[in-house]
Amino acid sequence: MSKLTALDQLLEQYKQLDYHRDAVLKQRLNDAQAWLKTRIQATHQDLFNEPKNQLMAKYFINRLYGGPEFDDLAIQIERLLNYAHKAEKIIPENAIRTGLKSVGLAVYAMELDEQVAKQLLKDYPATQPIDDEMMRVTLVKLNQEQERKKQLDLLDELGVSLDKYMRSFIMHTAFKMCKGTAKKYHFELMYDFIGEGFTAMKPMKSAATFIQSFTQIELIIVDNVHSGKPNPFRV
């Protein structure tokens, strides 16, 4: 069985999302994710602004929390799956394993955020700017507490995988040697998706430590929202 079978399954999950066939929902999803990313950047400003963390923070926002950037990547993932036998030869196995975790996180984020976008469309005009109170009410109504905690657990697992598999000099060297072949077969976006994880880790001692600092605060916010605390996003 191909090591990329799980990637095929993730791509199918992604294709099943309703926003692909609904322009209004797609716009509201983009709005919701823009609000989330702005909130995350404000909440974790001190952590993200540390020089050693800036590249990983960018990887977080642009890669692991979904958004329009993922749509182009999904197109290339589909192409990559058509050449799975070649991809498995040019991308190291541990890089594939870690890349799968990253893609899985992005798809899961899209699924949860699409639920938020649908609820927003039920309760508010499609063009109404999203504010903190709208989002608080929506999250309480959806009751995504356990799903959001699962999302944070998956992030912690990714941090452990990054430290375990992606710090090896041999792994990094092997991955860099694949760049020309990836370009030849037009897998650049997928290569860059995994490669950005390598680059983001360079300045830091531990990706897991950074991610745990992030998830600990996010867990507080999830608890704040579902315990009815006023201004739950301000930690």
Topology:
Blueprint: H1 5-15, H2 23-43, H3 45-49, H4 54-64, H5 68-82, H6 84-90, H7 93-123, H8 132-142, H9 145-165, H10 169-177, H11 179-184, H12 188-201, H13 207-226
Helix pairs in contact: 1-5, 1-7, 2-7, 4-12, 5-12, 7-8, 7-9, 9-13
Features:
235 residues; mainly alpha; 13 helices; 0% strand
Overview of the molecule:
This is DUF8198 domain-containing protein. With 235 residues, the protein is mainly alpha-helical. The protein has one domain (5-226). The chain contains 13 helices and no strands. It has helices at 5-15, 23-43, 45-49, 54-64, 68-82, 84-90, 93-123, 132-142, 145-165, 169-177, 179-184, 188-201, 207-226. The longest helix is centred in the middle third of the chain and has 31 residues, at 93-123. The radius of gyration is 18 Å and the shape is globular. 30% of the residues are buried.
Note the beta-strand portion: under 5%
Q: How much is the average pLDDT?
A: 85
Number of separate strands: 0
Number of domains: 1
Amino-to-carboxy terminus distance: 46 Å
User: Count of helical segments?
Assistant: 13
Shape: globular
The description of the largest β-sheet is: none
H-E string: HHHHHHHHHHHHH
What's this model, at a glance?
By secondary structure, this protein is mainly alpha-helical.
